[in-house]
From TrEMBL:
<protein>
    <recommendedName>
        <fullName>ABC transporter domain-containing protein</fullName>
    </recommendedName>
</protein>
<dbReference type="InterPro" id="IPR039421">
    <property type="entry name" value="Type_1_exporter"/>
</dbReference>
<dbReference type="GO" id="GO:0015421">
    <property type="term" value="F:ABC-type oligopeptide transporter activity"/>
</dbReference>
<dbReference type="InterPro" id="IPR027417">
    <property type="entry name" value="P-loop_NTPase"/>
</dbReference>
Length: 93
């Protein structure tokens, strides 16, 4: 972070964080994203819903890409994953 990279690669950066720490990291990434490209690899959709572009990979192949809203409208697998992962978070917020 101190070197101000052109591209920041985050691989499962939130996998061991609690919800509050995850949100703090997401906020920091949003701020950093104004200065460089951020590539996030994640299983938790909560870390990617605000991304400019999401790539959904299934069995090693690109299944779909788009924003969260576009994928919700167009892809049944993404909708199913979002329903499982995001609905409980939305119910508690």
């Amino acid at each position: 972070m101190l070197a101000r990279p052109d591209v920041l690669l985050l691989d499962e950066a939130t996998s061991h964080l609690d919800s509050d720490s995850e949100k703090a990291l997401r906020d920091a990434i949003t701020a950093i994203g104004t200065r460089c490209q951020v590539v996030t690899i994640a299983h938790r959709l909560s870390t990617t819903v605000d991304a400019d572009r999401i790539l959904l990979v299934e069995d090693g192949w690109l299944r779909a890409s788009g924003t969260h809203a576009e994928l919700m409208a167009a892809d049944s697998t993404y909708r199913r994953l979002a329903g499982r992962q995001l609905a409980p978070l939305e119910a508690t917020s």
